[in-house]
Write a structure and sequence with these properties.
There is one protein chain. By secondary structure, this protein is mostly beta strands. It folds into two domains: about 180 residues, Pectate Lyase C-like; about 200 residues, no CATH class. About 5% of the residues lie in helices and about 50% in strands. The longest helix has 11 residues. The N and C termini lie far apart (about 65 Å).
């Protein structure tokens, strides 16, 4: 078997075969394989149960430029009704399937050297358990930088993702996971939880904790959905910092909870979030694409501060599937929309089956919040400024406890619209 210490001492550049041999030699032995300092240009590396891959300081794992150097895209034998990036896993740089105990750590880098989206995933794990990813950097990923499906007992910490051309961290049909102290910069979703059909069945995403994350993206900062055939439950998010100003894809939401494929989103708490220059602070949506509408219930958002927002937050269920039991507490929003951006006379369409994004509704007749089809709304200490001529908060077919809203710079009333104190 290869000696890790000897390998570090005599080798400065390894190829795919060298590294695969080293990984295979230590898998399941309790020892680790240390990738030495230097640039190592490789194709697909397969990780087995009991694999511990460590980056030494100065170690760079660089993607080969040709897709042919990677495992071919798998044929599923069923229709996943998902984005191709969501459903493809084997076409990757570091790939494991059905493995128990996979650790990748150390201060090294994965450099993808890609200029366009599409291609291998840097890290792709399918139906794996006891996963730890810690301490390294992924740069310019052409596909989801860290992509997990059907996994459990996951710890992702102190990972930095820079200039991702796709999503940053995606957990699909995954349970018992912790994401903490990460820094993600992406063109598409920064952190996204999914419940797709890419395993051929409906599976839940549950028991997820996300703490202390710095996020920067042109798209969605933190999202549940869009793929939402399975359920989401017991999601806890705390201490996110979101920096916008790099794009307005899908309205650039800070927090987006979207069930549009029949799944149920429940028991979600998101707290202590700071947003600066984000497009749309909050977007909650029930839709119905190919399946009957699902549920969005038991959501609590508290201590959220959003400055320099460009669009009103949109919270929209359906007339036959309202959002239920929603609480917004200690929320402060300061929009920067110019006069004319928010059309007070605009009629907002329903768009039942459209792709979920706040801009799907067109101009919103409110500058801070638009609520529609919500049963059981509680607003407590919601502060906002209102730079446009339209109402700051508009409630349409909403029931629940009486709200308490406060404005920073406005001469108009606090909350306007069809609001009832009747029980749902």
């Amino acid at each position: 078997m290869l000696s890790t210490l000897l390998l570090i001492a005599v080798v400065t550049a390894l190829d795919t075969k060298d590294i695969q041999s080293g990984i295979d030699s230590v898998a399941g032995t309790g020892r680790l394989f240390v990738l030495p300092a230097g640039v190592h240009t490789v194709g697909t590396l397969k990780l087995r149960s009991g694999t511990h891959l460590r980056f030494a300081a100065g170690a760079v794992l660089r993607m080969k430029p040709m897709n042919a150097d990677y495992a071919p895209i798998e044929k599923l034998g069923f229709e996943p009704f998902a984005d191709v990036e969501t459903s493809r896993f084997e076409h990757a740089l570091l790939f494991a399937s059905d493995a128990d105990g996979v650790t990748i750590d150390g201060p090294g880098r994965i450099e993808c050297e890609r200029s366009s989206r599409g291609g291998p995933k840097p890290i792709s794990l399918r139906r794996c358990r006891n996963i730890k990813l810690d301490g390294f950097t992924i740069d310019r990923a052409p596909n989801y930088a860290i992509s997990l499906i059907g996994c459990s007992r996951v710890d992702i910490g102190r990972v930095t993702i820079t200039r991702s051309l796709s999503d940053g961290i995606d957990l699909d049909s995954t349970s018992d996971a912790l994401i903490h102290d990460v820094d993600v910069e992406s063109h598409d979703d920064a952190i996204c939880l999914k419940a797709s059909l890419s395993l051929g069945e409906k599976k839940a995403t549950r028991n997820i904790i996300i703490e202390r994350a710095k996020l920067k993206t042109a798209s969605v900062f933190f999202k549940l959905g869009t793929e939402s055939y399975g359920d989401f439950s017991k999601i806890r998010v705390k201490g996110l910092t979101m920096t916008g100003g790099v794009g307005n894809r899908h309205g650039n939401p800070g927090i987006a909870l979207e069930t549009v494929d029949g799944g149920k989103i429940s028991d979600v708490v998101i707290e202590d979030v700071k947003m600066d220059g984000v497009g749309t602070p909050i977007f909650l949506r029930i839709g119905a694409r190919k399946e009957p509408p699902g549920e969005l219930t038991g959501i609590r958002l508290l201590r959220i501060e959003a400055r320099g927002t460009r669009h009103a937050s949109v919270i929209a269920g359906l007339v036959d599937a309202p959002i239920r039991n929603l609480s917004l507490e200690e929320i402060r929003v300061e929009p920067v929309g110019s006069p004319g951006m928010f059309d007070a006379k605009q009629s907002v369409q329903e768009t039942r089956s459209a792709y979920p994004e706040p801009i799907q509704f067109g101009p919103i007749p409110a500058s801070a919040f638009f609520f529609r089809h919500v049963a059981g709304l509680r607003l407590s200490e919601v502060h906002y400024s209102k730079p446009a001529a339209s109402p700051a908060v508009l409630l349409d077919q909403v029931t629940g406890g009486w709200p308490t809203c406060k404005q920073i710079d406005s001469t108009r009333g606090a909350c306007e619209g069809n609001f009832s104190k009747k029980k749902p």
